[in-house]
Specification:
The complex is a heterodimer. Chain A is an alpha+beta fold. Chain A is built from 4 helices and 8 strands. Chain A has a domain of about 160 residues: Sortase (Sortase, Chain: A, Beta Barrel). An 8-stranded mixed β-barrel of chain A has the order 1-2-3-4-7-8-6-5. The radius of gyration of chain A is 32 Å and the shape is elongated. Chain B is rod-shaped. Classes of the chains: A alpha+beta, B mainly alpha.
């Protein structure tokens, strides 16, 4: 009752008029206010949706650049440990075929400062998302390091999912790229890089990659990833050539490039 | 929208705040667990291999 009294006071009219006005506001002609309120409600919902969209996109960035790394590191460690355990169990140095399911070995690139990278078969995102490097089976089948000639072609993520080739641009001519198999260290030296090429440039994977300047068959390694960082518009390519191999000793002493 | 949800949550302010927090975390979980992994391959941010274009898409 006080409210009506206050209303009346505010309007400076008597009770009867106040009740009349309140009747009129709740019945027919008052559209402007209600319509305005409805418009305001619609706009505020749109605004809230936009804010929500912004937050979701922010979360997606956090997911891509942080959470996928967490998951990938976990998976890569687990799988890497399994490969090492297999190796430890089958101590006998006879080549009993590659165990391509768990991964075939580890890549060490001191210039990339990313420790060891497990190498597995295939370059599907299912494989690469576990924070490993995959060797190509398609469109050009990769050679393996122990083959007499050929190109050992690898791909890994630049950002997210372990980001194993994030620092690929730090690789310069002459830098070492070492591949560790169960019984051999393969030491490659970088001889050419291609900072930007089309994503359809399948030629970089050839047995003798002509784009690198090589004409004769040899034992090459090719690293591919996406560039520029955070996008995948182009591809970044690094080529290396085998300079020597070393037998792995009982303590798995790394070659001097890794010390 | 959020005002409507807030008004329809049961309990006093603290209970409402707690429920809101749980709801928000649940949504973040669903996004990270299901929505983002689904959306990621559809977005052009993380293809790292060279291929022959559409005919070679796996």
């Amino acid at each position: 009752m006080t409210a009506t009294g206050q209303d009346a006071d505010a309007c400076g009219v008597d009770d009867t008029e106040a009740s009349e006005t309140s009747v009129t506001t709740s019945t027919p002609p008052p559209p402007p206010r209600r319509a305005r309120r409805r418009i305001a409600a619609v706009i505020s919902v749109i605004g809230e949706l936009l804010i929500t969209a912004g937050v979701v996109m922010g979360l997606f960035v956090a997911y891509s650049l942080w959470w996928t790394n967490v998951l990938a590191e976990r998976a890569a460690h687990h799988q890497g440990d399994q490969v090492r355990q297999h190796w430890a169990k089958s101590k006998s140095p006879e080549q009993k075929g590659l165990d391509t399911k768990d991964g075939i070995g580890f890549l060490h690139v001191p210039a990339m400062k990313n420790g060891e990278v497990l190498v597995k078969k295939g370059t599907s995102s299912k494989v690469l998302n576990d924070g490993v490097a995959g060797y190509y089976t398609d469109p050009v089948k990769s050679a393996l390091p122990q083959d007499k000639t050929g190109n050992f072609t690898l791909a890994a993520h630049r950002d997210g999912h372990g980001a194993k080739f994030h620092n690929i641009d730090k690789l310069k001519k002459g830098d070492a790229v070492v591949y560790e198999s169960q019984d051999t260290w393969y030491v490659y030296k970088v001889f050419a890089t291609l900072p930007q090429t089309s994503k359809y440039d399948v030629g970089v994977l050839e047995k003798t990659p002509k784009a690198s300047g090589k004409r004769k068959p040899g034992r090459y390694i090719t690293l591919t990833t996406c560039t520029p960082v955070y996008t995948s518009t182009y591809r970044y390519i690094v080529w290396g050539e085998l300079v020597r191999t070393e037998k792995v000793d009982a303590d798995r002493t790394p070659p001097k490039e890794l010390r | 929208m959020y005002g409507w949800i807030w008004r329809h949550l049961p309990g006093n302010t603290w209970v409402k705040a707690l429920i809101s927090l749980v709801l928000a975390l649940a949504i973040v979980f669903l996004l990270f667990q299901y929505v983002f992994p689904w959306a990621e391959p559809l977005l052009p941010f993380n293809d790292v291999t060279v291929d022959q274009g559409m005919e070679a898409v796996r």
